[in-house]
Amino acid sequence: MRTEDFDKFLREYAHGWANDIRRVREAFRDLPHLYHEVRYEDLLKETERRLNAILTFLGVEQAPDLVQRIVIENTFRRLSGDREAGTEDRGSFYRKGVAGEWEKILPPRARQIFTDSSGDMLEELGYKTD
Question: Could you say which DSSP state residue 52 is in?
Answer without folding.
Answer: H
